Amino acid sequence: MEVALHYYNDKPNFGDQISPVIVDALLDSKISRVPWTENGEAVKMSAVGSVIHSLRPETQVWGSGSMNQDVPSDKLKFHAVRGPKTRKFLLECGYSEEQVPEVYGDPALLLPEIYTPKVLPWTSDMWVVIPHHSCLDSAHRRNYWGNLTAEDFQDWELFGYRIVFPNEPWQDVVDAIANAKGVISESLHGLILADAYGVPNVWWKNGEEGLAGHAGNFKFQDYFESVGQTDQKFVSHFEEITEDNWQELMNRETAKPSLVDVDVLREAFPYRQASV
Question: In this predicted structure, what is the pLDDT of residue 212?
Fold first, then answer.
């Protein structure tokens, strides 16, 4: 049997790059993962990412989320979804409660079971700052970051801000997150992986409507609600985080119990090894 994994792979982005890593770790040894093709014979599957709107019929969905209001195929097979907002949207699109089980969780939360980060002692007193991958696509944002000099980044580091771009190898980004004093992230998976590795974090929110082209803040709120963070704090710019306020902004209490049980999420993986 062969499985083709659907994930965003047009441009390097660490959040998307961890999807095949997690799937490969859980996949039964008798099943092989093959490159994605629209018309191949392999079973179609999705995991990490806001990709439900783009999936073809019969795709097996495990932990994926919605990002916009595009109506998905009515023939998807759900094993878990990222959060309750995604599930509510699917029910509004005509899926039944039985077709979308109440199993929640972004698969990235399982990465600590698979990957042990390198120890980077020099970063333990630094806040890791992760821009969104659109900073490399949007002309305005690209020009902003591209016009910065090495001295700019050195100045930020003097004040404890370490900039880590999302197109760096996923291992490097995860190493930076796991060793940080705290994470300030425009990227959803910067926040998810900080939670997974037990690192304080805060959402760097770009305006009231979120990042351009990303349907407001749906995917962020979907994840926050899944883990009980219904009163999520945020900053409008990473330099708002200081030594005086970082603990207050990053060390939040969850308002509700988390809906995510990583053991249940792992068990819901459709092609799991019996011993995992």
Answer: 46
